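Table S2 (continued). Query chain:
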Amino acid sequence: MAELQLTSWLGGTALGKIPVVAGSWKVTNQAGVQVPGTIEFSVPAVPEWIPTTDRHPLAAMGQRVWAQVDQGDGLRTWGWFRLNRPKLSGPVVQCSGVGLLREVERFRFPTSMQVAVGTSRSQLVRDLLAGIMPVVISGVADSATSALITWEESRISALWEVLESWPARGEVREQVLWVLPAWNDASPGDPTVSLVDGVGGSLVDLEPVVDDSDPYNGYVVSTVPSGEEAAVVRMWTMPDGPMAWGGPYGYNPGFHSSPLNPADPTKLLAIAESMTRREVSAGRTVTFIARPSLRAEVGQVARVRSTRKGVSGVGRITALELTRGALSGTVAMLS
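Corresponding output:
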């Protein structure tokens, strides 16, 4: 059985370890959402654990918890969560928290933010997160914006729009936002985790997800230029597989236009490919339940095999949920 260990902090001050009720907790992580990461747990409703002051370990005055899970072979880190207001429920206090990008979501623009043409993406991300959290940019080439940009309210939407147009992804490690290369689903590399059934396997159950959407098998991506300049437009389509452009699936393009999109045709094409492959893989997903001792992370490439359900291939883990008794999640199948 996995066991959750939590320490509460307020700023740079440790407020103490939290006595989590066994089996009352779950932690999650998910790709493709603006604020990834949630945590839920309960503590005994004894006087010392009912928050009555602003500096109590469970108060929601900026308190953060550092979450680690003992999975039987050592601690696995799940990171930091900002606590929400707890609720008293009979013999327990019910607590929850969210990932640290919630800080960015809360801090909406007081007035509209305007970005000059030629501002680098790295500087733009640092400006958006100034005073909230540090930024580390690793493995992605910088580039400048090619049009005037104005955001009215949502800072978190602005952040993800910048990352999408790079293309890049954001990941909070410790209390720092890392800007990293977008996942390459065309060449995902060898699997680093195994979700297989049978003797010695970690897989308990697997279910293919029935998707009733109509996924795009190509994307048209364009700039929104300033002044009299013509828009730069590039299109990328699936070259092979069951959803190949012009095959039996037919033609179903998506469209994405943004003043943040780079004017460089090669980079536009990379964005179109990334969006198309994400669309296609999102339509071919499976959910799974595995033993809680399995060490897996969102973004890992997994070997998947269920002889009972007739599923075999390689996919990318896009969501995880860990409880005391099981690890469950979602895999977007790539092959």
